[in-house]
Recover the amino acids of this structure.
């Protein structure tokens, strides 16, 4: 049975390389996804900020799409989409009144049986052993700060996939790639993605704290699994540098890109040329290791 | 020794309905504020917002900038010793503020509106259109140039589509929005 | 049968919503009622005299008093009636206060309901039989479970009154948590200095049998007549032969294999050890989980150096049986651990405070050891990570307490006081240091308590910040504390050298198991429940079993000691007579109809149902039937309701009595 795939809007745009690298890595791991038919936006941070029922109806449409397609599970790589889909299903199953209201808007029924997982859980399912087995490049030279952000682990009543305060699941996968996950303090600190466009000054300040802490703990890269966090941590470094000329750069990778690097896949095939902070240096070392191994 | 009957303010009832929570469980420990990422940018602390509700000073809460600065990161909710979902209260207060015509943080509100418009028009969010719509509605904002200068790079890297992606179910989504707004009488 | 009805107005309490005069008048016409009257306070002396007089004047056979709950004054009226020559069990109470006036607003319907309840009680009393109390003998020997300050106090009080006491402690030494404390609030006197004389007194008391490293395994019997099985765990050291010279401890090569429980993990102890130098008894114990001999079969150095041949590697647990008349449960508390809880634990733990992973984040008992002159740092302030003196220290209150989400709903009561003490002790030791206390409320009720806290703030300069801390993390050798001062409405970040968490007092993990062995109730947190929160605070709901100290709820030392003495007094009252009288309201089995299904035995919460063999004249077994042990039965009636052959009846509440009551209500 294939796993259902809900890319979410960001993975078609600013988070394109997440989509590209995910698909490329899965090819090497011999697993396939089935995209949810004609999926639509989940409403992310905007809808629930201003409008309760709509904020449930938007993700709910995708649940019905997946149901009607015969899927039993959905993997949503974007942390915000994952959180919205999961908490929508959970809260609709708890509140019959709102469920009826949403179903009226959708003109369809929610059965509440979908298993909704994030990209970390998906790789846990595939098995870290498979990554270890297919690993081609030694990444032990790479210190990795795993960044979960807020929405991935804070699921409220909807569930729990890792410790909300001290998560370790991403580290387990990073360790499987051979890279070294480091201990640091801002793993689950919010980067303010919801205000990325409306309050750039806040976002810059929050982002800087996260980047600085990762670097203070000797991270070479930050690895994450959320396109909103990525566009903040990667793109905002340019603005930060404008205000803080001494600011050092740190590349920010999607978890799937790091796995791809370990599998020996070329950077361009993983979309790593699309970053604002250059990943060239990383890829050069990767290439050297590759050559040495051959 | 007869039973006690409490009379709640209708606005409080609406807030408690929207949040499905009893506001009086908050004992004002301030842990929410202590861990809030936007605490340094907000004049009024998050615990003050719920305190206003407890005191019946609804206007103060609805007019506060804090409710718009909330990043919905759920840190407060996760750590609240009384299991109060403060992030949900912030959602509810934003919804009520719009309903009552208070829009203290234009930037955030315009952004949300522009975002929802993208979904309504195309079924998915179309980032270039979003930035364009948002900036047009918010022309005075200084942030205009900050994002516009990364946009060309994004286009070059193929990260921003020139044209929006319209989904097949676009009509259904539009209908959903219309049905919802007709019912609510919202904008 | 001539019955008297007495309606009490209870001042306004009943009189306000029940027309007592009207009710008394209408009750006069109930068949069997010879006299019916009302009075303002029936429980008062004139009220009771009214009852007595009416009995004498009218030659009454039975009495119905319509008043408050039978919990309040049933005894009063039984005594009054008895004084006038009526068997006390021919008195019935109709509760027209809690069941009528307090829950209704309307006078006519309240009065109607009161009349109905009285009529119902009249019908019951018509079927009442005169009963006599049950008499059981008393074994004048007490068991005290737990050798902390509460258990020590209870044991000494009972023993000093001249009764024998068996004191059981599961650890190798008595002393409990109090022996770990540095100084005590609000007087700052040295904890060990005031405790150790008591410990020695226990050890030397001719009336006290001290069983350390022992646990209660089974309790049978009932008030005045318990049979208790106690497991004396193998110490691997023969008590009678050891003279406590300590040579074995000195020479044990396994020095750093185990963390010292007494030092709260801040120091090591050898495999053979006494918990602390003043331990009572001063007899070591071998921790078999770390001892080299038990692992490899070699070593035996302790045996070699022991001049008294007191080491016994082959020693086994022994089971002792004791005859006991009363039990005091003084099992104390545990401190909420800041480490990540094991799966299935009732609490979540504090990931935001690092799950105890940061070395310089310690709990209150660890701070006590650090501040103690006999502790691992000899009383000097040295933080665990690098031994440096912390110049900035942060205390966080209510960790685990008052936290529905990650801990417990209750307030642990003592943390406000001990944190104030900690801040003070710190400032006394580090004069140029800064001490911050994050609190939610300061709860300092108690003699000289508030003054003590004020002294910490005003004289010693502890800075109190009202707010809960959201997060702690380690950065560059500092613990970063993220808080908010909710009074000023400003965020506060402190880079502390050390953080002390005032964690909750929680029930002992084994408390529910012990409660089940004893057959006494405990609450959802595992604390033993008292029989009545105000008027029976040291009694459990099982006769002859009393509670003392923090086993019941979080308590400080003075409160634990008071409770222990109170429990001891209750034991002494019980021991003051040779024969015990108790209510005859117990279950009774009709052996002729009992089919021996023993459903009653399954549902009995008090283990009161036994099996009884019925034999014919030749000793041949005819059948096995249920038999109710009158000492154990509490008269709850569960067996009565369960019995499929209707063979169990509750004396005083027989089916015919209850039916008569119901039928009386149905007449309406």
């Amino acid at each position: 049975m294939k796993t259902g795939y809900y890319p979410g809007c960001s993975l078609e745009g600013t988070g394109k390389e997440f989509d590209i690298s995910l698909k490329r890595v899965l090819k090497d791991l011999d697993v396939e996804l089935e995209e949810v038919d004609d999926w639509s936006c989940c409403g992310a941070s905007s809808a629930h900020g201003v409008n309760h029922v709509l904020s449930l109806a938007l993700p709910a449409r995708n649940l019905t799409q997946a149901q009607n397609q015969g899927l039993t599970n959905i993997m949503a790589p974007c942390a915000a989409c994952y959180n919205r889909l999961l908490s929508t299903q959970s809260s609709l199953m708890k509140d019959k009144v709102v469920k009826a209201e949403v179903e009226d808007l959708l003109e369809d029924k929610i059965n509440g049986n979908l298993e909704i997982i994030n990209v970390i859980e998906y790789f846990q399912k595939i098995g870290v052993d498979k990554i270890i087995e297919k690993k081609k490049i030694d990444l032990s030279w790479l210190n990795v700060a795993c960044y979960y952000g807020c929405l991935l682990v804070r699921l409220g009543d909807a569930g729990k996939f890792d410790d909300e305060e001290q998560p370790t699941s991403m580290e387990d996968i990073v360790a499987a790639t051979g890279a070294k996950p480091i201990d640091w303090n801002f793993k689950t600190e919010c980067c303010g993605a919801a205000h990325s466009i409306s309050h750039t000054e806040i976002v810059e300040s929050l982002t800087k704290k996260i980047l600085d802490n990762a670097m203070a703990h000797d991270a070479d890269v930050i690895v994450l699994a959320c396109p909103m966090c990525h566009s903040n941590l990667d793109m905002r470094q340019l603005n930060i540098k404008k205000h803080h000329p001494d600011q050092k750069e740190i590349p920010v990778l999607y978890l799937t890109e790091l796995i791809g690097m370990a599998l020996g896949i070329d950077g361009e095939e993983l979309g790593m040329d699309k970053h604002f902070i250059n990943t060239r240096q990383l890829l050069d070392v990767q290439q050297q290791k590759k050559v040495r191994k051959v | 020794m007869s039973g006690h009957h409490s009379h709640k303010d209708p606005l409080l009832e609406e807030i408690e309905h929207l949040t499905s929570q009893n506001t009086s469980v908050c004992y004002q420990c301030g842990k929410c504020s202590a861990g809030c990422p936007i605490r340094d940018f907000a004049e009024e602390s998050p615990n003050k917002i719920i305190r206003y509700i407890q005191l019946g000073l609804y206007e103060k809460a609805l007019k506060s900038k804090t409710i718009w600065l909330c990043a919905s990161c759920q840190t407060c909710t996760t750590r609240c010793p009384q299991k109060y979902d403060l992030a949900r209260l912030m959602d509810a207060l934003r919804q009520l503020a719009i309903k009552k015509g208070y829009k203290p943080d234009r930037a955030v509100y315009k952004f949300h509106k522009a975002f929802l418009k993208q979904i309504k028009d195309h079924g998915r969010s179309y980032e270039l259109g979003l930035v364009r719509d948002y900036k047009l509605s918010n022309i005075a904002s200084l942030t205009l140039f900050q994002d516009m200068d990364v946009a060309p790079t994004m286009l070059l890297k193929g990260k921003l589509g020139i044209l929006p992606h319209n989904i097949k179910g676009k009509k259904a989504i539009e209908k959903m929005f219309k049905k919802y707004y007709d019912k609510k009488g919202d904008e | 049968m001539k019955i008297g009805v007495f309606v009490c107005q209870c001042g306004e309490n009943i009189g306000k919503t029940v027309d007592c005069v009207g009710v008394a008048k209408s009750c006069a016409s109930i068949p069997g009622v010879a006299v019916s009257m009302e009075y303002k306070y029936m429980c008062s002396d004139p009220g009771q005299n009214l009852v007595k007089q009416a009995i004498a004047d009218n030659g009454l056979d039975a009495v119905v008093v319509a008043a408050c709950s039978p919990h309040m004054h049933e005894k009063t009226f039984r005594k009054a009636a008895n004084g006038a020559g009526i068997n006390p069990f021919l008195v019935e109470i109709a509760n027209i206060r809690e069941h009528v006036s307090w829950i209704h607003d309307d006078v006519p319907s309240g009065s109607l309901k009161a009349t109905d309840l009285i009529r119902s009680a009249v019908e019951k009393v018509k079927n009442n039989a005169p009963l006599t109390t049950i008499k059981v003998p008393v074994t004048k020997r007490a068991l005290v479970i737990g050798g902390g300050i509460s258990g020590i106090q209870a044991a000494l009080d009972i023993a000093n009154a001249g009764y024998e006491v068996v004191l059981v402690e599961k650890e190798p030494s008595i002393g409990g948590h109090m022996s770990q404390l540095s100084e005590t609030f609000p007087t700052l006197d040295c904890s060990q200095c005031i405790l150790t004389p008591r410990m020695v007194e226990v050890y030397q008391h001719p009336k006290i049998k001290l069983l350390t490293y022992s646990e209660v395994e089974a309790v049978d019997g009932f008030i005045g007549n318990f049979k208790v099985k106690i497991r004396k765990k193998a110490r691997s050291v023969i008590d009678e032969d050891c003279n406590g010279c300590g040579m074995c401890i000195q020479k044990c090569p396994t020095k750093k294999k185990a963390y010292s429980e007494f030092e709260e993990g801040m120091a090591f102890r050898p495999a053979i050890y006494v918990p602390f130098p003043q331990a009572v008894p001063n007899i070591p114990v071998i921790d078999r989980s770390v001892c080299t001999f038990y692992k490899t079969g070699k070593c035996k150095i302790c045996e070699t150096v022991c001049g008294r041949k007191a080491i016994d590697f082959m020693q086994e647990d022994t089971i002792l049986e004791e005859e006991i008349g009363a039990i005091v449960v003084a099992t104390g508390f545990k401190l909420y651990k800041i480490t990540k809880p094991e799966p299935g634990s009732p609490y979540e733990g504090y990931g935001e405070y690092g799950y105890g992973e940061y070395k310089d984040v310690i709990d209150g008992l660890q701070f006590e050891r650090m501040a103690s002159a006999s502790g691992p740092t000899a009383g000097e302030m040295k933080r665990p990570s690098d031994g440096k003196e912390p110049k900035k220290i942060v205390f966080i209150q209510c960790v685990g307490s008052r936290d529905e989400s990650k801990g417990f709903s209750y307030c642990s009561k003592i943390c406000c006081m001990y944190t104030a003490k900690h801040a003070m002790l710190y400032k006394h030791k580090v004069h140029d240091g800064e001490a911050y206390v994050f609190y939610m409320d300061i709860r300092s009720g108690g003699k000289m308590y508030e003054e003590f806290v004020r002294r910490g703030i005003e004289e010693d300069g502890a800075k109190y910040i009202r707010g809960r801390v959201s997060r702690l993390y380690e950065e560059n050798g500092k613990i970063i504390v993220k808080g908010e001062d909710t009074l000023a409405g400003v965020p506060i970040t402190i880079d502390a050298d050390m953080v002390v968490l005032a964690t909750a007092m929680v029930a002992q993990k084994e408390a529910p198991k012990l409660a089940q062995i004893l057959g006494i109730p405990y609450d959802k947190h595992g604390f033993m429940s008292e029989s009545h929160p105000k008027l029976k605070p040291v009694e459990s709901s099982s006769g002859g079993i009393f509670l003392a100290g923090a086993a019941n709820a979080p308590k400080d030392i003075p409160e634990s000691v008071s409770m222990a003495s109170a429990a001891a007094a209750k034991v002494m009252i019980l021991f003051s007579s040779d024969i015990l009288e108790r209510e005859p309201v117990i279950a009774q089995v009709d052996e002729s109809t009992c089919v021996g299904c023993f459903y009653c035995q399954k549902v009995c919460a008090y283990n009161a149902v036994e099996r009884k063999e019925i034999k014919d004249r030749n000793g041949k077994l005819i059948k096995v039937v249920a038999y109710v042990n009158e000492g154990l039965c509490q008269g709850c009636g569960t067996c009565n309701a369960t019995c499929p052959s209707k063979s169990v009846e509750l004396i005083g509440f027989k089916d015919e009595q209850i039916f008569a009551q119901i039928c009386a209500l149905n007449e309406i």
